[in-house]
Structure formats: C-alpha cells, structure tokens
Amino acid sequence: MTQPGGGRWNDLQTRVISAVVMLAVGAVDIWLGGAPFTALVVVLTGVMIWELAAITAPNASQVSVIVAVLASLALVATMLTPMHARTVFLVLPLIGIALTPRRDPVIAVAYAVAILVAGFGLISLRNEAGTPAILWLIGVVIISDVMGYFAGRLLGGPKFWPAISPKKTWSGTVAGWVGATLFGLGFVIFAGAGWGLVALSPLTAFAGQMGDITESWIKRRTGVKDSSRLIPGHGGVLDRFDALIGAVVVLMLLGLIVPLPLPGGH
C-alpha cells in the first residue's frame, strides 16, 4: 500500500541513479581537465542549445540540430581565437535562432547567449582557477538543489514564485542558501579559501535558483514540461544544468567588476 505522502518521493530513485551517473562522468572530466573537460562542456552546450531551439520551434527540427552544431563549433572556436574575434563565432548560432520562426525569438536568443556564456565560463574557470573552483561551483549548485528539494517537500510552506515554478517553496529556497553558505565555509576551513567565499556561495546559489526559474518560465511559455527526455528522472540536459547556467553567468558578470574569491584562483 502506498504510504501517505509517498507521491512526493516517487521520482527519487530514478533521479538519484541518473544523478550518480552524471556525477561520475563529471567527476572524471573535472579531474582530467584539459581537452576531456572542454569536450564535455562543448557537447553539453550544443545539446542545451538544441533543446532550447527545439522547444521554441518544435516544427523546425533540422534547424535545431544545425544551430546546436554551430553552437558547439562556435564554443570551440572561441577557445582557439584571440579575445577580439570570439564574438564573431558566438554570434553565428544566435543568428540561426533569431532568423527561424519560433516562439519568443528575443527570449530564445537571450537564453542562448546565457548558455554560450556559461559554456565559455566553465571552460575558462577550469583553465584559470583549476579543479577547486569547479568543485566549489558545482557543489554549491548541487547542494542548493538537494537542500531545496528535500526542505521543500518536508517543510512545504509558501511558494517562492508560483506563477512560474509552482513546486518551489520559500523553505526550499532558503535551505539552498544555508546549504551553500555552509559549503563555502567548508572550503574556507578545510581548503584555505578566502572568507569572501562564504558570502559568494549563497549569492551563487541564488543565481542558480534564478537560472532554474528562468528555464521554468521559458518552458511554461512554450507549453512543455521538460526540455527533452534525455536524462531519466531529470528531463533534459537543460533541465539539469539550468541552475549552473545562472550561476556561471552571474560569476562571469561579477568577475568583470570585482576580483572573485574563488578557491584555487590566482
């Protein structure tokens, strides 16, 4: 017999298995760094662009594939060309999205920019700050998500933004901030990171939550539940990495203004 409230957890096993597989693949690539990590980010970026193009223009499947390939090639090109020439390559997939009839083309282009910036930012962060910075970033996003998942289901309470993401609660959102702060504190105590990381961690978690909210808003406007069905229990790649997109984009923007107290940074 189904236990009361069991429906809240009916997707947990599938989610955990998929998460373990993704963590294993990600851990190996993060540890290897270099070409393997870059290749993984390039592939994931291309897939996310494909998912975005597909949900905003479901009748243009061939265009979605072409745009995804262009996005992957553009990201590779940005790593091989001088800074002043990189924008040229990144614009190519955006033109493909902009010129194709689709739902909310301006929003689609803007979110595609965020995906490309996040891909570029992840590769740059791994190359410049090393493994510790990537582990911290991914750890903040995962812990915020996990804390939010369990706190939201156990505690419930008022919804964070019901019109866009009806499942998210304030209890889960705040729990994510707390978890991120403690995680940042752990890096300070055990990895010798600067104290600024304690403040940067919940800010990064919040940026990740906004990334999640943004993708939920786009899906709601396009009338789809998941960006695709590539990952059992998680939907699409965009569904799983939307928070990471928000976190990396905000870190990139902050890095243009002030030096970031990243672990392993120079």
Short account of what is shown:
Helices cover 74% and strands 3% of the residues.
Shape field = globular
Mind describing the biggest β-sheet? 2 strands, antiparallel
The Cα radius of gyration reads 18 Å
Query: Low-confidence segments, ≥5 residues, pLDDT <50?
Result: 1-6
Helix content range: over 70%
Q: Can you write the helix and strand succession as a string?
A: HHHHHHEEHHH
Number of alpha- plus pi-helical segments: 9
- What's the overall average pLDDT, rounded? 88
Commentary on this structure:
With 266 residues, the protein is mainly alpha-helical. The chain has one domain (12-255). Helices cover 74% and strands 3% of the residues. It has 9 helices and 2 strands; from the N terminus they run ααααααββααα. It has a two-stranded antiparallel sheet. Helix 5 packs across helix 6 (131-155).
Element layout with pairings:
Blueprint: H1 12-32, H2 34-56, H3 61-80, H4 83-98, H5 105-129, H6 131-155, E1 159-161, E2 165-169, H7 170-191, H8 196-222, H9 237-255
Antiparallel strand pairs: 1-2
List keywords for this structure.
3% strand, 74% helix, disordered N terminus, mainly alpha, 266 residues
